Amino acid sequence: MALDILSEKGVPLARQNFSWRDIVRVPFSKLDDDAFTRVRVILMNGIEAEAIRFSHACSRMNKDLRVPLAKIRRVDQHQQTMVNWLLPPDQSPLETTIGYEQVAVEVTASVAAHEPDPYLQQVYRFGLLEDFDHLYRYSALMDRIEGKDANNILQSYTDIVPGRPTSEEHRAPEDDLRNWYDRKKAQPISKLNALTIMAGEFQTHDYYMNVGPTFADPVARQLYAEIASIEEQHVTQYESIADPDETWMEKWLLHEATEVYNYYSCLQTESNPRIKEIWQRFCDYELGQLHFVMDLFKQVEKRDPAEILPNTLPEPIKYESHRDYVRQVLSKEMNLRAVGYRFIDGTKEKESDATLTYRKHLNSHGSPSDMVAAGYRWYTGTELGKQARAS
Amino acid sequence: MAQATDMGMNRTGIGMAPRLSEEMIRDAETSIPTSGGDGHQIERVRREYLHNSPPLGSTPPPATAKGAAKAGMHMLKGHRPSVFLDKLGERLAFERTGTRLYEALIAKFDEVGTWEQGPTRDQLIGFHNEELAHFELVREAIEYLGGDPTVVTPSADVSGVTSMGLLQVITDPRSSLAHSLQALLVAELADNDGWHMLIRLAEAFGQNDLSRRFHQALADEDRHLQSVRGWLSVEMEQDLKGGVQAQKPH
């Protein structure tokens, strides 16, 4: 049964408490848990990180909202910690990276498939093929540097093949901006989708920027530098699809609704009972936070939050393999490129001079992503398996 | 070429900042901790988590019961095949990562060269090829016993975590060939013991053919270990007597 977010009040903010022992729990198992448990944990960390990021920006610009923002932000901080600390310590930064890219592929595919607005669908499919390629490049890096198989993380849900080549994803900033949805006309799901994917990409960018320099191998350091740059482009893209005329309160309300929606989505498919309990608890916490902000919205904007929010939550994000969907997009849209707000067929139309000049300069000393995956084809148990059998 | 043992401006010790460190020591001595007790508090937290943590993961049952039966794995009462498969998984992961370690080492060798009686390129390539052959040997053994060689077993997972530091040293362009060989020595020591253990397990399961092939791998690993020890020992002697004369690879 769909969740009625306007009448379900969840746990009141005053009862949303934590202790350090409560926050720092036993992580999931890298070996035995389903890959989608990792996908959910990674995405929810991103959703909470975005909630905190937005809250800080809002606080800087709205002196009257500072206290309520700080109260909710503190809970979000501890929610994010509890979620992110579920990542197991035997999962290396590169293995976690593979997990991040699986999030980008599978969650973006689910969102693209359910997005009602055709232009926004196209935006998601465009980004999807780029993240899909990142997964292939990082898999090659893992195989060739560490002698490990990325499929141990992916668990055969997601293909490891090239997408739109990363070396061709570098675009001038003006070609990464997109049209935005109209806040008065867009369906609520379009707004929740935009926030979800933007949150996921933002945390991916931040993660690569943090772990990139922890690698000793210069090939890895270059690849993280290159892909982090694309993630910055993706944040630019996804940030731009939200209507800039939404009020601060509208945006806050939508952030809270996105958190409820995402915890609710996780709850539908979680296979680990320990973690399912966390999704349930935080879904209830987020409902409490949403209602807190709804009351505030009524006071500040003198409007009914139902103008912005859906009565019931849309169809949950599907945590499952989107192999067929991704293959279809790959076969039809590999050659798409972006010029300004438009998508073009790169075989028929030229990209902008600004993009071509920018890309040429960036790749002028070689492309890390091309180099690391030169001649690379994923093989079960790593390419060394193929090499060993041949020799 | 500058060597890591050349004298320089290393700032990590207090000797480089006598006045500042004197102030720092005085401040620390007069400070009062805000919570009582000592380092044993850490043990209490560790034990609490130890008590509540499930294992890292599990070893899956043999992928093909037929394969396990053919290999006679079910015949021996009191011996759990999962122990053998877990350790085979560990060796497979270690040999595969070891192959990549040698690749990084060869790249370093090609750029920085070696020293008199140090490793030669042919030796490093030979060891690399043997690591690859050992990986294939273990893969075949797992398949023969009805296991899935693509599985990361718990011991394989642990060996992956253990090897991370070795990879970091060897792939760091700033670490010397000798630093890298020091990291490799850790790998070869563990590898050597790992093969001893696999031989014992093969014998416990009556897998005489596997045991014979594992003995051959152990002979290779013995040679690797002795060589790495020898190269490092010579390098230290030369360094001691006035610096290592780098020899460019031919």
Descriptive report:
The complex is a heterodimer of chains A (391) and B (250). With 391 residues, chain A is mostly helical. Chain A contains 14 helices and two strands. Chain A has a two-stranded antiparallel sheet with strand order 1-2. In chain A, helix 2 packs across helix 4. The longest helix of chain A is centred in the middle third of the chain and has 29 residues. By secondary structure, chain B is an all-alpha fold. The longest helix of chain B is centred in the last third of the chain and has 33 residues. The model of chain B has no long low-confidence stretch (mean pLDDT 92). The two termini of chain B are 18 Å apart. Chain B is built from eight helices and no strands. At the A-B interface, helix 5 and helix 14 of A face helix 2, helix 4, helix 5 and helix 6 of B.
Overall spatial form of chain A? globular
Q: What's the number of helices of chain A?
A: 14
User: Distance between termini of chain A?
Assistant: 58 Å
Task: Report the average pLDDT across residues of chain A.
Answer: 97
Q: Which bin fits the share of residues in helices of chain A?
A: 55-70%
- What oligomeric state do the depicted chains represent? heterodimer
Structural class of chain A: mainly alpha
Biggest β-sheet strands, sense, barrel of chain A? 2 strands, antiparallel
Task: Name the poorly predicted regions of chain B.
Answer: none
Shape field of chain B: flat
Number of E-state strands of chain A: 2
The proportion of residues in beta strands of chain B is: under 5%
Spatial ordering of strands, largest sheet of chain A: 1-2
Tell me the strand percentage band of chain A. Answer: under 5%
User: Roughly how much helix do the residues of chain B carry, as a percent range?
Assistant: 55-70%
Question: Which series of helices and strands of chain A comes N to C?
Answer: HHHHHHHHHHHEEHHH
Backbone CA Rg of chain A: 21 Å
Poorly predicted tracts of residues of chain A: none
Quote the average pLDDT of chain B: 92
Distance between the termini of chain B: 18 Å
